[in-house]
Amino acid sequence: MSPVPEPSGQFVQSLARGLDVLRAFDLDHPQMTLSEIAGRTGLNRATARRFLLTLVELGYVASDGRDFRLTPNVLQLGYSYLSGLSLPALAEPHLEQLSHRLEESTSLSVLDGDSIVYVARVPTRRIMNAAITIGTRFPAEITSMGRVLLAAGPEEQWPAARRKVLKQVRRQGWAIVDQELEAGLRSVAAPVHDAGGSVVAAINVSTTTATSSLSRIRDEFLPAVLATAAAIDATIAQSRPRLPGRPSGSGR
Question: Which pairing describes strands 185-193 and 175-178: parallel, antiparallel, or unpaired?
Fold first, then answer.
C-alpha cells in the first residue's frame, strides 16, 4: 500500500483508514476475512469491521458473511481521474501502431510517488505471471518506464542504489531493463513530454528473452519507441490535453 502522508491540521484520519482498507485488496489478496484485513491495515477488528460494513453499504465492498471482496464500483474512484486525463486517449492510437509493428505489448504510465501506474495499455499476449491492467502499479526503480520518469525528476529524490543508472538514463533519454521486474521479461521505454518539454509520462514495449535479444531491442525496438514517443509529443503539442502532475525539474 502507498504510504500515507504525515498528518496535518486538516488530516481526516477516518478517511485515511477507510482508504487503507480499500488498498488492502490487491492481486494476491482479492478476497479476505475480517482478521486478514485487520492484519494488513494495522486496524483492530472492531474498527476494520466498521469500515468494511460502511464500504459494503456504499457498494464498494461485497461480503458473503465471512469473506470480503471489492466490487466493480471501486472503478468509479479512478474513473474521474482517467476521464479527465486525455493523454491516454491521445497516446493509445500511437501505442496500437507500435504494438502492431513490433508484435509486442505497449504501455503508457505515469509516476506516483515511488511507483508507476499504468494508464494505457495495448497487450498482445500474457508475458508476465501477474496480469497488467489499467491501474497496475510497479516499483519505479526496477521498470524501464519508472527509470525514465525518475530520471526526469530531481536527483535528491533518486534511490541511492540507482543513482548511476538514472544518470545514464537521463543522459541518453531512454531505458532498457533486463529481467529485473520478472525473470524472462525485457522492456525498453522512452519519455513523453508536454508542450513545454517537461516529462509527464513514459511509454514502453515489453518482450521476453525467448523472442527478443538485447541487440534486437537496441537495434529495432528502441528506434521505434523513440519515434512513437516523439509522435505522441507532437500530438500533445497540437491538442494541449489535460496532463497528470509531473516531477519537478523535468525536461528534455
Answer: antiparallel
